[in-house]
Amino acid sequence: MKALLDRIREGEILIADGAMGTQLQSRGLTPGECPELWCATHPEDVLAIHRAYAEVGSDIVECNSFGGTRYKLRHYGLDDRVAEINRAAARLAREVADGRQYVLGSVGPTGAFLEPLGEETEESFFAAFLEQVQALEAGGADAVIVETMTAVEEAAIAIRAARTCTALTVMASFTFDPQPSGGYATMMGVTPEQAVEAALAAGAHIVGANCGTGGRDMVEVIRRMKRATAGALPLIAMPNAGMPTLENGRTIFKEKPEETAQFAVRLVEAGVSIIGGCCGTGPDHIRAIRRAIRQG
Ligand SMILES: [Zn+2]
Q1: Which of 10, 49, 150, 255 is an S-S bond match for 241, by CB 3.0 to 4.6 Å?
Q2: C-alpha 211 to ligand 1 mean position (Å)
Q3: Half-sphere exposure of 179 (CA within 13 A, CB side)
Q4: pTM summary value
Q5: Domain ranges in the chain?
Q6: How many CB atoms lie within 10 A of CB 119?
Q7: pLDDT by residue (tens digit) across 267-277?
């Protein structure tokens, strides 16, 4: 199989998966449960989600490993099972990929803060990300995506861990919100331009945006990132299925697949090489995206 970066360099647009979390919830994952543990306890459900995305034409299968650092697994008393859970996540994705899809390990934020804002050190973050990305590589991942990031320092440490200690292709993706004063920034005040600069300096191969307020806002974020990269890095976009709304205490995403697909077309026009979905997107959204992107 040709390397992912080579296909992008040749101008191909690759389709990635939609959400994992909301798909697990629809299969019975309860709010108090560890989603990543399902790689060990409910492998058939995780495989079924991967297969559903493969069947609608995803080129990149994303592992169920988003909260797989020891920081996140500690909340469930599972921090001694980081290697096992991440290896299992990558193996399940690899089983479905079967030489037709790239396996992308998901690496989410630790949920902790670096000094002086929090109590964590750079060394401790580095060790946690290293442990996760090495296990993903051992399980068969081709690439990792450091995603839903809001702090550049944390993202940079995760990127460096993957770049210096693995042979994986490394993507970095941030989550932006529209600002009252105009423009876009992460929860930690990072602009799209600053995110690109940090990802590039840390050695990421691909940079972009995921989650957030949906495709409409992401088009402008991607335009800004495109200008900031000056062609140095390919871009990825994985928007949520629109703005989340709260109904009876549950977060609902109402965007129809056709609407998501229209934003996907605009995101590709804005310069992304990889397009997928985040929270609330399912196989129907990815099918619609693929049709819209690949038509003609
Ligand atoms: Zn999301």
Answers
A1: 255
A2: 4
A3: 15
A4: 0.97
A5: 4-294
A6: 10
A7: 999 999 999 99
Cα of 214 vs centre of ligand 1, distance in Å, is 9
> Who contacts 31 (Cβ-Cβ below 8 Å, separation ≥6)?
none
Task: Give the tens place of pLDDT for each residue, 56-77.
Answer: 999 999 999 999 999 999 999 9
The tokens of 211 are what? Answer: 């989650």
Parallel, antiparallel, or unpaired: how do β-strands 235-239 and 244-247 relate?
A: unpaired
Q: How confident is the model at residue 41 (pLDDT cuts 50, 70, 90)?
A: very high
CATH number of the domain at 4-294, please?
A: 3.20.20.330
Calpha distance 176→148 (Å, rounded): 9
Burial (CB < 10 A; 0-12, 13-18, 19+), residue 286, is buried
Q: Do the beta carbons of residue 37 and residue 85 sit within 8 Å?
A: yes
Q: Ligand 1 mean position to 184 CA, how many Å? A: 17
Report how far ligand 1's centroid is from the alpha carbon of 105 (Å). Answer: 15
Q: What is the rounded distance in angstroms from the CA atom of residue 134 to the CA atom of residue 284?
A: 32
